[in-house]
Amino acid sequence: MSEVIDMLIDESTSLMKKAINHLETELSRIRAGKANPQILDGVHVDYYGASTQLAQVANITTPDARTISIQPWEKNMLGPIEKAIIASNIGLNPQNDGNIIRLFLPPLTEERRKELVKRVNAEGEQAKIAVRNIRRDVIEQIKKEQKNGLSEDATKDAEGRVQGITDKYIALVDQHCKDKDKEIMTV
């Protein structure tokens, strides 16, 4: 019976790690004033009829702290890349010079920083909800095991272990959000 509980707890830990990885990915897309190619990770370009990630049709570099440079491997991709960036709604206007597309990141205003912090906190809340949902599902499965013959003490012990893991991952979410808030608010 304890093998089932260990398996449930391992599964919940793995799912919570995935929730943290998703949070890290989402936070990396929120720009903090510095040029970062990861801002463009969600941008997909129409490449001969197929939706393709921008990084697969162009070379993306950051020549300085406020500029992202996009050099397509084929010149005829400049237009579709420009359209995709505008459609992606990342808040940056592409500057096309016929060879390279440049994205200039304006310095963040205090108001914009506060909006970004709200977005970071919203992402953090989504991650916490995901972690708590995982906890709820695992505890429901543990209670089903109790109905199938698991002792009450073992059930309480397993629920305690799941709650401890949940607390650890919630603290991790809070730490990620706090670090990103600090990064954004640093002028």
Question: Secondary-structure blueprint of this entry?
Answer:
Layout: H1 2-29, E1 44-47, E2 50-53, E3 58-64, E4 67-72, H2 78-87, E5 94-96, E6 101-104, H3 110-147, H4 152-185
Antiparallel strand pairs: 1-2, 3-4, 4-6, 5-6
Helix pairs in contact: 1-3, 1-4, 3-4
Task: Please explain how this structure is put together.
It contains 4 helices and 6 strands. It is α+β, with helices and mostly antiparallel strands and 187 residues long. It has 2 domains: 2-29 and 109-185, Ribosome-recycling factor (Topoisomerase I, Chain A, domain 4, Orthogonal Bundle); 37-104, 2-Layer Sandwich (Gyrase A, domain 2), CATH 3.30.1360. The strands form 2 sheets. Strands 3-4-6-5 form a 4-stranded antiparallel β-sheet, with helices on one face. A two-stranded antiparallel ribbon has the order 1-2. Strand 5 and strand 6 (101-104) form a beta hairpin. Helix 3 (110-147) packs antiparallel against helix 4 (152-185).
Index terms:
187 residues; alpha+beta; Topoisomerase I, Chain A, domain 4; Gyrase A, domain 2; 2 domains; 4-stranded antiparallel sheet; two-stranded antiparallel ribbon; 4 helices
